[in-house]
Design a protein that fits this description.
CATH architecture of the largest domain: 3-Layer(aba) Sandwich
CATH class of the largest domain: Alpha Beta
Number of helices: 19
Shape: elongated
Structural class: alpha/beta
Helix content: 40-55%
Oligomer: single chain
Bound molecules: ligand NAX, potassium ion
C-alpha cells in the first residue's frame, strides 16, 4: 500500500524530528537517485551537466545541497535562483564551495535548462501555494534534452489535492521524502510525476487519508474459491442493465461480472436473448442475488430497476443511467438503505449528482474534493472514474487507483467495470475494497490488452484480459507481476 499524507501531517511528523538529520537523509537520498540516473544515462556522474532550479524554501535548499554533492563527484553544476534574496543560505554556500555556478539571469537559466543532462526542480515543495509565478512558469514549457527530477513533488502541483492551478513542471522522476503526498497519486497532479521514488527519512506520520493499493494488497483482497465453493459462496450478481437500444451494455457488464469471478449472473433486462446467446452461463430466472448492478444502458427501464435494487437488502452498485435517475431523485433516495451502495460516476455524472453546480471539467480538475463531497452527500462509497480513478468513503477516506491507462477511455469500458465490481460485492467484499480492487484489475487488464508500448483496445478486449490481470495479481510476490507495476 502506498500511503499519502497531507502537508499538515507531514509538517507535524517533521516537527517531531531534529531538522539537520532530516535534511541530511533527504539530500543523501536525492543525490544518490540523481547519481543512479546520470550513470544510467551517461555512464558516470563525472562530466555530466546538472541544473538546479532553486526556489526560496527547503525544497530549493535540498536541491542545492544535492547539487553540491554531485559537483563533488565531478558534475558541472549550475543553479538558477528564482527568488534570489531568499535562497537557502547554507545550501547556496555549499554549492558555491563545491564549485557550482549560480545565476539569476533567466536567459542563462533557460540555456542551461535546454542543455543539462539532469535538472533538479527545487522551485517549491509542499510549501507551494497557487500557480507558479512567471519566472518559474517558463520552465514548465521550455525545451529540454535532459531528465527532470522533481524534488518532493513537481512544482505547481498542489500537494494535498493533486490540483494544478496554473503552470506545473512535468518530471521524469519524482524523488519524494518521508511519505507520499495525495498530489503525487491523484490526477491531474499525478500526470506530472513520472516515476515515483520514496526516500525514507524517519517520519512517523499518522494514518493516511489517501492510499493507493499495490499488487500485494490486491492479491490479499481478491476472493479465491475454496474447494467446497458453490455459486452462492462465490456470489451471485443480479444485473439490471441493457435495453433494446443498448444491448451491448448488458453484454459487457455480464462479461465483467463473469470474469470478475461471479458464481453466477442473474440477468434482468430486455435484450435477454442476446445476452444468453453470447453468455450461455447467464441465468434468466428470478432467485437469490448477493449484489445488484443497476444502470449500464438500462434506458427507460431504469426507474423501476433502481426501485427494485434499492429496495433489496444486498449491496447495490449504481452506474450510468442509474446515476442519472439518482441525480433526479437526490441523496434522499438512498436514505432508507441498510445495505451499502456504491456509485460509479464519471466526471459528467458526478457533476449531475452534485446538483449541476459544477461542470465535468471542474470535477475532473479537483477529483479528491468532488469524490469526497459526493460520498458524504449520498452516504455511499463513490468510485469516480477517470485518468486516476478515485474511491471515496462518506467519512472522507480515499483510495486512488494506480493502474489506469488512457486506452481505457473507450465505449463500454465502464460497463465491464460495473459488472466486475458487482461480482466482487457479491463475493462479500465491502464497497471500500470491491471498488478499488475492480478499478485495479480493470486498469491492469486494459494495460495488458493494450500491450507495450500500447495500442487501442475495445471494452471487449479489456473484459477478455481480466483473467490475465487476475493471474498477474495472484502471482503476487513478484514486484509488479508481468505488467511491471508495484513498488
Ligand atoms: N525539511 C527538510 O529538511 C527538507 C525539506 N525538503 C522539502 O522542502 C519542502 C518544505 O520546505 P518549505 O516549507 O520551505 O517549502 P517549499 O520548499 O515548498 O517552499 C515554500 C516557499 O516557496 C515560496 N512559494 C510558495 N508558493 C510559491 C509559488 N507558487 N511560486 C513560487 N514560490 C512559492 C514561498 O516563499 C514559500 O515560503 C518539502 O517539500 C520537503 O520535502 C527537501 O527538499 C529536503 C529536506
Ligand atoms: K519541487
Amino acid at each position: 500500500m502506498r500511503h499519502a499524507h497531507t502537508v499538515e501531517q507531514v509538517r507535524a511528523a517533521e516537527a517531531a524530528l531534529a531538522p539537520a538529520p532530516l535534511m541530511e537523509r533527504a539530500v543523501a537520498g536525492l543525490a544518490a537517485a540523481c547519481a543512479r540516473l546520470l550513470t544510467r544515462r551517461r555512464g558516470r556522474v563525472y562530466g555530466s551537466a546538472l541544473l538546479v532550479l532553486a526556489g526560496s524554501g527547503d525544497s530549493g535548499g535540498g536541491a542545492l545541497f544535492a547539487g553540491a554533492r554531485l559537483a563533488g563527484r565531478g558534475a558541472a553544476v549550475s543553479a538558477v535562483l528564482l527568488d534570489p534574496g531568499r535562497a537557502h543560505p547554507a545550501a547556496l554556500a555549499a554549492l558555491r564551495a563545491a564549485g557550482g555556478r549560480v545565476t539569476t539571469d533567466q536567459e542563462v537559466g533557460l540555456a542551461d535548462f535546454s542543455r543539462a543532462d539532469l535538472i533538479l526542480d527545487g522551485i517549491v515543495g509542499i510549501g507551494g501555494r497557487g500557480g507558479l509565478g512567471p519566472a518559474a512558469a517558463v520552465y514548465a514549457t521550455a525545451p529540454r534534452a535532459g531528465l527532470l527530477v522533481a524534488v518532493d513533488l513537481p512544482s505547481g502541483v498542489d500537494a494535498d489535492t493533486g490540483e494544478v492551478p496554473g503552470a506545473a513542471l512535468r518530471a521524469d522522476v519524482t524523488v519524494t521524502f518521508g511519505t507520499y503526498k495525495p498530489g503525487l497519486v491523484v490526477d491531474p497532479g499525478a500526470g506530472h510525476v513520472g516515476a515515483l521514488h520514496l526516500v525514507p527519512i524517519g517520519l512517523r506520520p499518522p494514518q493516511a487519508p489517501v492510499e493507493a493499493l499495490q499488487h500485494a494488497d490486491l492479491a490479499a483482497l481478491l476472493p479465491r474459491p475454496a474447494t467446497e465453493s458453490d455459486k452462492y459462496r462465490r456470489g451471485v450478481v443480479g444485473l439490471l442493465a441493457g435495453s433494446e437500444r443498448y444491448p451491448g451494455a448488458a453484454l459487457l457488464a455480464v462479461a465483467g461480472a463473469l470474469r470478475g469471478g461471479a458464481g453466477a449472473v442473474r440477468y434482468q433486462g430486455r435484450p435477454a436473448e442476446e445476452v444468453v446467446r453470447c453468455h450461455p452461463e447467464v441465468l434468466l430466472t428470478a432467485g437469490r442475488v448477493q449484489a445488484w448492478v443497476v444502470g449500464p444502458g438500462s434506458g427507460d427501464d431504469t426507474p423501476e430497476a433502481l426501485d427494485d435494487a434499492l429496495a433489496s437488502e444486498v449491496p447495490v452498485l449504481v452506474d450510468a443511467d442509474g446515476l442519472s435517475e439518482l441525480a433526479r431523485r437526490g441523496p434522499g433516495a438512498l436514505a432508507g438503505r441498510a445495505a451499502p451502495t456504491l456509485l460509479t460516476p464519471h466526471a459528467g455524472e458526478a457533476a449531475r449528482l452534485l446538483g449541476g453546480t459544477v461542470t465535468a471539467d471542474q470535477v475532473a480538475a479537483a477529483r479528491l474534493r468532488h469524490a469526497r463531497e459526493l460520498a458524504a452527500r449520498f452516504g455511499a462509497t463513490v468510485l469516480l472514474k477517470g485518468s486516476s480513478t478515485v474511491v471515496a468513503r462518506p467519512d472522507g477516506a480515499v483510495r486512488v487507483n494506480p493502474t489506469g491507462t488512457s486506452w481505457l477511455a473507450t465505449a463500454g469500458s465502464g460497463d465491464v467495470l460495473a459488472g466486475l465490481a458487482g461480482a466482487l460485492l457479491a463475493a462479500g467484499l465491502t464497497p471500500w475494497d470491491a471498488a478499488p480492487a475492480a478499478a485495479y484489475l480493470h486498469g491492469l487488464a486494459g494495460r495488458l490488452a493494450a500491450g507495450e508500448p500500447g495500442a487501442p483496445v475495445t471494452a471487449s478486449d479489456v473484459a477478455a484480459a481480466l483473467p490475465a490481470a487476475w493471474r498477474d495479481v495472484a502471482e503476487g510476490g513478484r514486484p509488479g507481476g508481468a505488467a511491471g507495476l508495484g513498488d
